[in-house]
């Protein structure tokens, strides 16, 4: 058996990959209802226990957002950005 067939196979690890901590619109809606916020940013996510302070945050469009709120995060999905703007708020990338 040749050497290349005897050795185990392993994959490629991309060194340029960016890991995001995920926050859904439903999490933001629950946070706004609980604390009656008008602006939600990284500090509010950390205080609520959704992320730690050192992670990048990406907002995804899972759930409903009915409150007019200004959201600050490192990245947004297209559906999340559209839902925030449809509710009357703004999505600001940091």
Molecular structure report:
This protein is an alpha/beta fold. It contains 4 helices and 6 strands. It has a single domain, classed as Ribosomal Protein L15, Chain: K, domain 2. Strands 1-3-5 form a 3-stranded parallel sheet. It has a 3-stranded parallel sheet with strand order 2-4-6. It is elongated and about 65 Å long. The mean pLDDT is 94.
- Give me the CATH fold name: Ribosomal Protein L15, Chain: K, domain 2
Can you give the mean pLDDT?
A: 94
Write down the secondary-structure element order.
HEHEHEEEHE
Which blocks of ≥5 consecutive residues have pLDDT under 50? Answer: none
The DSSP helix count reads: 4
Q: Approximately what portion of the residues adopt beta-strand conformation?
A: 15-25%
Number of strands: 6
- Helical residues, percent: 25-40%
* Strand arrangement in the largest pleated sheet: 1-3-5
Number of domains: 1
Give the second-level CATH assignment, the architecture: Ribosomal Protein L15, Chain: K, domain 2
Distance between the termini: 54 Å
Question: What gyration radius follows from the Cα positions, in whole Å?
Answer: 19 Å
């Amino acid at each position: 058996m040749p050497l290349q067939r005897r050795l185990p196979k392993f994959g490629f690890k991309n060194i340029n990959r960016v890991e995001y901590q995920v926050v859904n619109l439903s999490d933001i809606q629950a946070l706004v209802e609980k604390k009656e916020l008008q602006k939600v940013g990284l500090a509010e996510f950390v205080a609520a226990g959704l992320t730690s302070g050192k992670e990048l945050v990406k907002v995804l469009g899972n759930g409903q957002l009915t409150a007019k709120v200004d959201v600050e995060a490192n990245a947004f999905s297209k559906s999340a950005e559209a839902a925030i703007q449809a509710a009357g708020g703004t999505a600001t990338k940091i």
